[in-house]
Amino acid sequence: MSAAAPVVELKQITKRFPGIVANDSISLTLEKGEIHALLGENGAGKSTLMNIVFGLYQPDEGSIEIGGKPVIIDSPNKAIELGIGMVHQHFKLVDPFTVTENIILGTEPKKGLKIDYKSAAEQVRKLSELYGLQVDPHARIHDISVGMQQRVEIMKTLYRGADILIFDEPTAVLTPQEINELMAIMKRLVAEGKSIILITHKLKEIMTIADRVTIIRRGKVIDTVRTSETNPNDLAEKMVGRGVTFKVDKQPPNIGKAVLKLDGVNSKNKEGISVLNNLSFEVKAGEILGIAGVDGNGQSELIQAITGLRKIDSGSITMEGKEIANLSPRKITEKNVSHIPEDRHKHGLVLDFTVSENMVLETYYRSPYNRNGFMNKDIIDKHAEKLIREFDVRTPSIHTSARSLSGGNQQKAIIAREIEKNPSLLIAAQPTRGLDVGAIEFVQKQLIAQRDQGKAVLLVSFELDEIMNVSDRIAVIYEGHIVGEVYPENTNDQELGLMMAGSLKQGGNSGV
Ligand SMILES: Nc1ncnc2c1ncn2[C@@H]1O[C@H](COP(=O)(O)OP(=O)(O)O)[C@@H](O)[C@H]1O
Ligand SMILES: [Mg+2]
To answer: What would the mean pLDDT of 227-232 be, rounded to a whole number?
Structure first.
């Protein structure tokens, strides 16, 4: 007897989009009970391939077998029928509905003419227990965390009988704690006989959880390897096509005068709850101050306060000695503040504008871009050409809409624009979130280059590795308050973790 057929076999799948071969004769197999990672830089073709497996796209060439049988997957319904479920990057849940209502949406069990909500909720509870998902069947989506919402999406696929689960970059939206929990859930799923394809570009995750990994670069399979027979350096090199150093190279800082100073800043949200709580710190010229903390401890509010998107109730924020608290965002930008925002789609770029237009989003009204009320298109375009060249933004042209760029290239475009303004203070909020290692290296180098040019850099990141590697000094935020400041060379993940959890006030061995 021969070995069982793979649960999924892709045979030479090719998919073309105008001007690009997104998948170029890709073959891979998924074995039963396996976690198979799909690794590749942004734009490598991972989502396209999985959208084909889930019936959202049709391949131009190639075939698919499920359990050894050739199939045509011409719609998501067909995929579901074949036992395939997909957890997308952006959730498709109905906010005011309960968990159960979302899970049964479209396949409501009936009792006579009425929906049998009770038995559905019971089934949801059972599934939750079996896989350790811990979701409350009756909770409303808008009341639960992003991590929980993702579990509802997982549950939706399980409820529909999926045996093959596809996760498209599931950890991009999660906190470190939630990531660990998701890993445990995935292990549970395969232990119960499910098979998983996991799209990610995080090497750590792959090494922890995947059995095999297929590396895709520019639409082609580079290799498929067992994680037990590889290492992160090897994977990174295969992914980007060159060696990648994980250590960030930097010289000791040459620190100057304080540029940004926050003193006793307080701010309440609409509900009257304190989100910034007597918060004080300063960032000096020539240094990178990293703000470490678990998501939701005031990081976003802090940046909003500095950039003029949030009013503060008391305290002071000064930029090069001048008060900027509660000024308009434009006034603050004009005080030499640049900002790489957390949400590049909401605040960083206007997706329907061209790359060229996006490069002057905050400066278009000024000379030389604007003369006597007229936009100088030539100068704007030349400016954009220069920036995409210097910052290696990969785009077919400067007249392409920002929407069609990959995440990494969108981020490079924002960074180019913000750095080009030659600020005294550069605020970088989650600047590498969702980027692949090549782009991460690029972004971190740019931050260090700015610091070396004497700029003050404020880095806010949930990635502890990034905080440790890039910062010259670290301030830990907890519940809207700085609970301690440490130097990276005198601390470690454990101490920072305790401070981030609010159980340690000041680094024990830091002496800041
Ligand atoms: N619907 C589409 N139309 C045109 N081009 C697309 C479409 N979807 C993806 N692409 C292009 O195909 C390439 C692969 O994209 P994608 O599969 O999303 O990559 P990944 O998921 O690895 O980041 C990219 O160059 C992307 O711009
Ligand atoms: Mg993708």
So the answer is: 94
Q: Name the nearest CA neighbour of 285 among 306, 264, 258, 308.
A: 258
Residue type, 487: Y
Contact yes or no for 287/467 (Cβ under 8 A): no
The residue whose two tokens read 């029928």 is 81
Higher pLDDT, 236 or 57: 57
d(CA 197, CA 213): 9
Asked whether 104 and 157 are in contact (CB, 8 A), the reply is: no
426: tokens are: 């550069």
pLDDT one-digit tens code per residue, 332-384 = 999 999 999 987 777 788 888 999 998 988 788 788 888 888 888 888 899 89
The CA-atom distances, in angstroms, between 199 and each of 51, 88, 216 are 12, 10, 11
Q: Choose one of 17, 24, 409 to mutate for the ligand 1 pocket test, by most ligand atoms within 8 angstroms of C-beta.
A: 17
Ion ligand 2: protein residues whose beta carbon lies under 5 Å: 47
User: Which residues face 368 on adjacent strands?
Assistant: none
Under DSSP, is residue 164 helix (H, G, I), strand (E, B) or coil?
strand
Ligand 1 within 6 A of 48 CB?
yes
For residue 17 and ligand 1, the question of a CB distance below 6 A is answered with: yes
Check: CB of residue 463 under 8 Å from CB of residue 292: no
Number of the ligand closest to the Cα of 88 = 2
Pick the CATH number of 245-336+423-512 from 3.10.20.30, 3.40.1410.10, 3.40.50.300, 3.30.160.20: 3.40.50.300
Homologous superfamily of the 8-240 domain (CATH) = P-loop containing nucleotide triphosphate hydrolases (3.40.50.300)
Peptide bond into 252 cis (omega under 30): no
Extended strands (E) in 176-297:
195-200, 212-217, 220-226, 258-268, 274-284, 288-292
CATH 3.40.50.300 residue ranges of the chain are 8-240, 245-336+423-512
Contact 424, 456 (CB under 8 A): yes
Ligand 1 midpoint to CA 22 (Å): 6
